[in-house]
Design brief:
Helices cover 18% and strands 23% of the residues. It is of the alpha+beta class. The protein folds into two domains: 1-53, no CATH class; 100-292, no CATH class.
């Protein structure tokens, strides 16, 4: 809004000080006309003042502040069961900071880009025959033979495109790779770094994945939820003290009005009643206990390896 000081005309109104008339036109012609018979400054000043007044009214109507309603009263949190003895250790060992040196895989010149992602996946499959031999993901093991081939046969390779980004902050790229755990609709996500020319796994997770992102020092995984219009969003972030990717966010977010679809099972069979998140990929007792717990916490190694 255009405003002026009290008692003074608008700034663009070419009038003199209060009580003084505006200067006449140079020709001094009567009637307040200036050059070539045009209106003198007093007449122009009056017209401009009218226009500015109109603009000021319009500005006030369009830009004035409007109330957003009453502010809700802040409610402080209530501490429940203050006499309950605080737990000093977790109920389940789910390997939140597990890291693992990949044996048998060398890193030439310390350059992780020279490591073959297919060889890394083959090494993991060989180390877990219970899962990939005749286990839940035997089709993944069979399709590894298609990796490196061209055409339609090569497209059957379960190993996805590898991505390289510095997630640990040491100035060198780290390896983020994924591979399908077949049959079914699970995707395994792994992150590797290099320490003294050795390949080290610093994050492992598998789920029915709807999207994966790298942001800063974090890996963000989105997974479908049993609740229509919502999805899970999990974020792992590099922790310098633990030298591992830690699960820093695990939340359910609204995505819109999607139709409810049952959560896929690891075997691809008809889905059963949903269990705790995330579904473990290993038959180890510790993983089974973790998935059966009411907590939705997952670890940097969801399979408990």
């Amino acid at each position: 809004m255009f405003r002026t000081r009290p008692g003074l005309p608008g700034r663009s109104g070419l009038l003199g000080r209060p009580g003084l008339p505006g200067r006449p036109g140079r020709s001094g012609r009567p009637g307040g006309l200036g050059r070539s018979g045009l209106p003198g400054r007093p007449v122009l000043a009056a017209a401009v003042a009218v226009l500015l007044a109109s603009a000021a009214v319009g500005c006030g109507d369009a830009g004035e502040l409007q109330g957003a309603g009453a502010t809700p009263t802040a409610i402080s949190p209530d501490r429940l069961w203050p006499d309950l003895t605080p737990a000093s250790r977790p109920a389940f060992d789910i390997g939140e900071v597990d890291t693992e040196v990949v044996k048998g895989i060398t890193v030439p010149d310390g350059d992780i880009r020279k490591v073959d992602p297919v060889a890394v996946v083959r090494k993991e499959i060989a180390e877990h025959p219970g899962d990939y031999g005749q286990g839940s993901y035997d089709e993944t093991a069979r399709r590894m033979a298609d990796c490196g081939k061209s055409g339609a046969q090569g497209s059957r390779c379960p190993v996805l495109k590898a991505y390289y980004r510095d997630l640990t902050g040491d100035g060198h790229p780290d390896l983020t790779l994924g591979f399908r755990q077949l049959p079914g609709n699970l995707t395994a996500v792994r992150v590797y770094t290099v320490r003294k020319n050795r390949l080290v796994k610093i994050m492992a997770y598998e789920d029915a994945v709807s999207g994966v992102e790298l942001a800063g020092r974090s890996v963000i995984i989105r997974a479908p939820s049993e609740v229509a219009g919502y999805e899970y969003r999990l974020q792992w972030t590099w922790d310098q003290q633990q030298q591992a990717m830690l699960l820093t966010h695990d939340e359910m977010r609204r995505t819109g009005g999607r139709k409810r679809s049952p959560r896929p099972s690891a075997s691809g069979a008809s889905p059963a009643a949903p269990a705790g998140r995330p579904a473990p990929s290993s038959a180890s007792a510790s993983s089974a206990s973790a998935s059966a717990s009411p907590s939705s916490r997952v670890s940097s190694s969801a399979s408990g390896r």
